[in-house]
Amino acid sequence: MTNPEIIDIHLHLCRDTQQEKTVFPKAGWPDEWYWASPDKVIPYMDARGISHVATMNIIDTGAMVAGRIRRAREQGASEAEIADARVTLREDMQERVRAFNTLMCEAHAKEPRIIPYMMIDPILFGEAAIEELERCIALGAKGIKVHPSICGHFPDHPNMMAVYKRCEEAGLGVLTDSTSRARGGAEAFGTPLGWRPVLQAFPHLKFIMAHLCDDIWDDRLELSREFKDNLWFDMSGGIVDAHHPAGGHSMLTGDQAPRVFRKIGVERILFGSDGPGTGRGEDVLEAAGEVMRLALTDAEKEQILAGNAKRFLGLK
Ligand SMILES: [Zn+2]
Q1: Which domains does the chain have, with CATH numbers?
Q2: 166 Cα–ligand 1 center, Å
Q3: Span from the CA of 56 to the centroid of ligand 1 (angstroms)
């Protein structure tokens, strides 16, 4: 198998290198090595045979607000001042998300190989989540990223149902985080089975559950049997092998992966690096190498690395 085409269905581009250094810092890296922003990613892709990347917009606005409130308290702010600050901060964070969504749609307009998935947060935007989606559709968005554990909601949150419906109608993809683990003492909002009501309600939604190689594969397998037409998976987080220990979204070993993938159906599994986070996402080829090392046929590897994503994204 020579020079395979790669489509990365799940990475996180930043606004620029400065932002990338803050969000995904790499010890010892000079600025020139950072690659995950619209101005740098195309030569990076060309050097690796990556034809397209889908970029997932997500900002942990809850953590940013909590940090600022904490600092205000430390500086002696009164409860009334904190309450005022919460209102202003909410507007600031909404504006931040809108600006980030706009930026990635503009990147796509300039370079169609960058496929923009928007951050739609039903807590931050409330009932206006659908308005943000409409704004992004007008700008050329191709999908949405839903992250229940960062945003703090269950998959079938009432403000999201209209959003999924519109995505289904407009042919936009939905890519969701999934994990059994809770963040910071909250509930585990994004478990695989939590998506069942959404998959039931929207049988034609183009839906990718990220992190197939995370834990509780039994629930993922159950869903794959139940939703044959609308449920796809990405393998971002990656495989446990001689080069990569278990941890994060990576729990499935390389010797078991072919068996699990075939049970689900290799034609529904998409390659994603979750880059440029630390570990294998630092370089997309590091993650793609894991696929190449699996005991799958060349045809199956081609499907996972690019063919399935072409069908999903409607690319030639
Ligand atoms: Zn991710």
Answers
A1: 6-59+98-313 (3.20.20.140)
A2: 23
A3: 7
